[in-house]
Design a protein that fits this description.
The complex is a heterotrimer of chains A (about 270), B (about 475) and C (about 325). Chain A contains four helices and twelve strands, in the order ββββααβαβαββββββ. Chain A is of the alpha+beta class and about 270 residues long. Chain A has two domains: about 100 residues, Immunoglobulin-like (Sandwich); about 160 residues, C8orf32 fold (Roll). Among the domains of chain B are: about 100 residues, Rossmann fold; about 60 residues, Dna Ligase, domain 1 (2-Layer Sandwich), CATH 3.30.1490.270. In chain B, strand 6, helix 9 and strand 7 form a beta-alpha-beta unit. Classes of the chains: A alpha+beta (about 270), B alpha+beta (about 475), C mainly alpha (about 325). Chains in contact: A-B, B-C.
């Protein structure tokens, strides 16, 4: 598919701030399933900083906005050619060994209930089928319910109330997979909403599980599928915070409000 | 409890060992009143200079003095030559390990170090995977804690690859001894240690990033004046002639880091940081850190600034990884280790755990990530209740503990209330690694001032001594 | 020099000068309190507190302005950021942060003041005469000042210390005068009376300046002479014009050393020129209180400019 993205994030401060610093992971990953046609990231009043590809294969770019400012707009526009690889992250170069993604974080720590859920996949025939089974279990355990959770909600908390959004689905699947000894990580990206109108968000997140012999494989429990040509992958991390497409801080900030719009469209070829 | 023979570094078989020969006369010629006077003078000098030591978590007086013992600890040139070789060897191996585990991890692939210990270690920083710092150095100041148990027996107790502290005491102890006892320095040919700050500055400058043209600007980044080691930070910065900065003094713009000066922004090339990884950049590590510099890691990773020690260096000085340092020496350098490790049991391993629990009252047990003598058990020096309480802690989280035999730490003569008596000591030399690898002849000798105590940490009643290396 | 280092040096000076002012306020107050009555005992102390800008904070914590409470508040109280104890603690802490920018003598003077302060705090209050406290403060302030002048390198750090001293002193002198003129004399009939003169003299004493004044002017003490002495006479070390001269001098030195002129420098030059052209009659025409209020605002504005230019670290 040929997908176009227009993603605008607007930060507003109730008083002028002295400076804004950001670190972006807003460039689609380089692997066999994605090919960039064109891609631009702009930051209003921003001075670009260092740019590099990190050990996990993500393109990272720093930005600085000199104050005083009361508003900063980050705009991402571009087109990407995508292929359906059935979730397999083929041809992605990275240095970080999979074992690193066995480490727990606060958001993905398994409690007794998570462990119990994960244990239901114990009899699976090999890691790949275990991963599929875990994704199904999480999809069943968590009803897609916008507004039921916040950005700080942990996997255990979301599972306890049985509701959540894509972030919670991803965290829950990661927690279960790690509990079962499978390296797992959080992936942030975009998803094209097709005509059928399945429930999902255009700024999306899912999980990847490492399967020996196959490598990293994506699972999207929120949509009960593996990432295909409708997905654009940006970056990964141990959890949502670690994989955030934008990490930022404002100097002298009193209160910040955020406004995000994302449009992903399919272009005729 | 078995009576252990301790190696006395001054007296052997009723005779004085050669390096201490002149010190015996000095000691005997000093009347008690003079000693008291000199001790008071030393204390006054320390207070004036401002060396004070605040202990984490203890509260109390932040301006407390660390006790200084005037009786020096002495090594012969030959003893030191061997130590030096061993220390440098270890520092090279540790850095080779760090470069490796953030690249291909050959030592793990070869099965010589368990993958879990490296990649699931809290100190492993995914954010720097693939990064090769300038000159291939992660740990620029390697502090290696060494104990002695016999004439030729030296063991490494632990490695400190991040920001080993205490070097200001090495320098100040010498300064004060030279002021108070100039005659001693005329009679004995003692190698100088005051070249340390200059060598440190040169080492730091030698790892400036490639993007830096001309003389690099080096700064020391401190968590601030409330930190217990603030004195050391300001002392070192002053001796090196570099700025002592806090996070708020630095900012990132474009591809570089800048410091705020009265004349406008000035580019910074090398940051000698005394802040933990977790706090140096809220955009990369802990988002709530107020001590760091937002965006610093992006500049570092794109080659705009050097950070010493490099983020991620801590994965080499973990107490569980420590066990494998001799293996690193063989793997990377193809040499046999000159300095031995203390035999170590990993409580995370079932067999080791059983042994440890069966012999708890004879072992020293430490937390894997602990430091400063906190959270440790010295079996032979503990009550039954203490041992049992610790047993519960180990059982609750075995992977968090390692155990070692109680070492017969050597003693050196130390001034005590009754006169002079043997007290247990250890040694921390500071190895500098940059373009070159250097070691000043000396280090910090810590002494357990309580009779019979084997714990030398200043937080647990330890003091410090001047450490001499005699010229050959 | 790091902006923060400059800021720490600047504040060492400001706090030491402020400690001295707190002690001077105590001295003025205790002497005026010895007067028969000028609208009641209570009023005298109250007006002093108003001058220091702390009347509300005092009332909340202590209620009645009796001498012992005032002493506690102006000398010992760490909740009062302008007390002698607070100022000396803060000066020493700022000094500790920039130890390496100071000489051993300056640090020694700061540290000794702090260590002795801690002893004073442990001494029973019954053993502490007010005069001992005020003399102690002024002695240590002088020792720190002396160590700075005698031992410190005359580099930019020295300039920032001096800027701190003189900005603070300009503000403090103006405020002390304002107490006397505006608050202590609410009734017009007192002006020019014997009572008035007694209070003026007390003010001079509090500035350690009454002998210097007599030496310089002689004869009867008049409001005009005192105003001239404390505002326009550059021989008087605490006079407003002297402070502005020093501020201007150190801003000029910095501009020269750094090779760039600043707005702060221009502002200080303007203030100095204006003071030089002022006659004492002009001040009384404007109204002493009005003149002093305007001066205090101008000094505060100059302080902000110095902060923005050199201390905030935001200058490009």
């Amino acid at each position: 598919m040929l997908l176009s993205v227009d993603h605008v994030t607007r930060y507003r401060y109730d008083r002028p701030v002295r400076a804004v610093m950001q670190s972006h992971r807003l460039t689609p990953s380089k692997f066999d399933g994605q090919k960039l046609r064109d891609w631009t990231v702009t930051v209003s009043g921003g001075i670009p900083g260092g740019s590099f590809r990190d050990g996990a294969g993500d393109r990272v770019q720093g930005w600085m906005v000199k104050g005083p400012v009361t508003e900063v707009e980050v705009r991402v526009t571009g087109t990407v050619e995508t292929l359906d690889l059935a979730g397999v992250l083929r041809g992605h170069r990275e240095v970080v060994p999979p074992e690193v993604y066995l480490v727990d974080t606060a958001a993905t720590r398994a409690d007794a209930a998570v462990a119990e859920l994960a244990a239901q996949a114990a009899g699976a025939d090999g890691p790949l089928s275990m991963a599929h089974r875990l994704a199904e279990l999480v999809a069943e355990a968590l009803a897609y319910t916008p507004g039921a959770t916040q950005s700080q909600t942990t996997a255990a908390e979301a599972l306890a109330q049985g509701k959540g959004v894509c972030q919670d689905h991803a965290h829950a699947l990661i927690a279960c997979a790690r509990k079962m000894g499978l390296p797992a990580r959080y992936v942030s990206g975009y998803l094209f909403a097709d005509a059928e109108g399945t429930p999902h968000e255009a700024a999306h997140a899912w999980a990847e599980i490492h399967v020996a012999g196959l490598g990293w494989v994506g699972f999207d429990p929120a949509n009960r599928c593996c990432p295909d040509a409708r997905y654009i992958r940006l970056g990964s991390g141990l959890d949502a915070q670690d994989a955030a497409p934008i990490r930022g801080i404002a100097r002298g900030v009193v209160s910040e409000s955020l406004d995000v719009t994302v449009a992903v469209q399919s272009l005729q070829q | 409890m078995a009576v252990t023979q301790y190696f006395n570094e001054m007296y052997q078989g009723g005779k004085v060992r050669p390096p201490y020969a002149r010190l015996e006369d000095w000691m005997k010629a000093m009347p008690a009143e003079l000693r008291t006077l000199k001790q008071a003078e030393a204390e006054d000098l320390f207070r004036r200079i401002g060396i004070t030591f605040a202990v984490y978590g203890e509260g109390g007086d932040p301006d407390r003095l660390i006790p200084f013992d005037m009786f020096p600890r002495v090594f012969t040139g030959a003893e030191w030559a061997r130590l030096e070789k061993g220390i440098k060897q270890r520092a090279r191996a540790l850095n080779a390990f760090l470069v490796d585990v953030y690249q291909r991890g050959e030592i793990v692939r070869a099965g010589r170090v368990p993958s879990r210990l490296v990649y699931q270690n809290d100190a492993y920083e995914k954010a720097v995977a693939g990064i090769k710092p300038p000159k291939g150095v992660y740990s620029h100041i390697v502090g290696i804690d060494i104990v002695r148990t016999g004439p030729d027996e030296f063991f490494v107790l632990e490695d400190n690859c991040r920001t080993p502290s205490g070097v200001s005491y090495m320098l100040e102890n010498r300064e004060i001894m030279m002021r108070m006892f100039p005659d001693l320095f005329r009679e004995n040919r003692i190698e100088p240690v005051d070249t340390y700050p200059e060598i440190l500055r040169r080492t730091l400058a030698s790892v400036a990033p490639e993007k830096c043209n001309g003389e690099p600007t080096v700064v020391l980044l401190t968590p601030g004046h409330f930190n217990s080691a603030y004195y050391e930070h300001s002392f070192l910065a002053d001796l090196m002639g570099i700025e002592l900065v806090e996070g708020q003094d630095l900012f990132v713009e474009g591809e570089f880091v800048w410091m705020r000066t009265t004349e406008g922004p000035k580019k910074v090339d090398v940051i000698y940081r005394r802040i933990d990884d977790a706090f140096i950049d809220p955009l990369c590590f802990r988002p709530d850190s107020m001590l760091g510099v937002p965006g610093l890691m992006d500049v570092y990773r794109s080659g705009g600034v050097s950070i010493c020690s490099a983020p991620g260096a801590g994965v080499a000085d973990d107490k569980a990884v420590y066990t494998f340092v001799p293996e690193m020496v063989r793997f990377y350098l193809g040499e046999e280790p000159i300095l031995q490790n203390v035999p170590t049991w990993q409580c995370g391993k079932t067999d080791d755990l059983r042994y440890v629990l069966d012999n708890l009252s004879e072992l020293v047990v430490k937390e894997v990530h602990g430091s400063g003598g906190y959270g440790m058990l010295v079996g032979p020096k503990s009550s039954k209740e203490q041992v049992e309480a610790f047993r519960g802690k180990i059982l609750a989280d075995p992977g968090n503990y390692i155990a070692q035999p109680t070492l017969a730490l050597s003693t050196t003569p130390t001034f005590v209330a009754e006169g002079v008596a043997p007290r247990h000591v250890d040694l921390r030399p500071y190895c500098l690694v940059g373009e070159r690898i250097e070691l000043v002849p000396g280090g910090l000798t810590r002494v357990a001032l309580t009779e019979g105590s084997l714990v030398v940490n200043s937080s647990q009643g330890g003091g410090v001594k001047d450490t001499w290396v005699l010229a050959e | 020099m790091l902006s923060r280092t400059a800021d720490n040096l600047f504040w060492i000076a400001r706090y030491m000068e402020r400690a001295e002012t707190a002690a001077r306020l105590l001295e003025v107050g205790s002497r005026i309190a010895l007067l028969p009555s000028a609208g009641g005992y209570r009023n005298e102390w109250d007006s002093l507190l108003q001058a220091s800008g702390n009347a509300d904070a005092f009332a909340r914590k202590y209620g009645d302005p009796v001498q012992r409470n005032i002493e506690s508040f102006l000398f010992f109280d760490h909740d009062n950021p302008s007390s002698v104890a607070s100022c000396i603690t803060m000066a020493r802490e700022n000094g500790r942060i920039v130890r390496t920018a100071l000489t051993a003598q300056v640090w020694d003077a700061l540290n000794t003041a702090f260590q002795e302060l801690r002893q004073l705090e442990r001494t029973p209050r019954s053993e502490l005469e007010l005069s001992r406290l005020t003399e102690w403060t002024m002695r240590h302030a002088a020792m720190v000042r002396g160590a700075i002048e005698a031992t410190l390198l005359r580099n930019d750090g020295w300039d920032f210390l001096n800027l701190g001293y003189h900005l603070e002193r300009a503000d403090n002198t103006a405020r002390l005068m304002d107490v006397k003129y505006y608050v202590l004399l609410p009734k017009v009939e007192f002006v020019g009376s014997g009572l008035d003169n007694y209070q003026w003299t007390t003010l001079l004493r509090a500035m350690s300046a009454h002998r210097a004044f007599h030496w310089a002017y002689g004869g009867e003490v008049t409001a005009a002479k005192i105003a001239h002495f404390l505002i326009l006479n550059s021989q008087c070390p605490r006079a407003l014009i002297t402070c502005v001269e020093e501020i201007s001098l150190h801003l000029d030195r910095l501009a020269k050393a750094y090779g760039s002129k600043t707005e702060a420098q221009a502002r200080a030059q303007d203030m100095l020129a204006a003071l030089e052209a002022t006659k004492v009659e002009d001040i009384f025409d404007e109204g002493l209180h009005e003149f002093l209020s305007r001066f205090i605002r101008e000094v505060a504005g100059l302080g902000s400019l110095v902060h923005e230019t050199y201390l905030s670290g935001d200058m490009r």
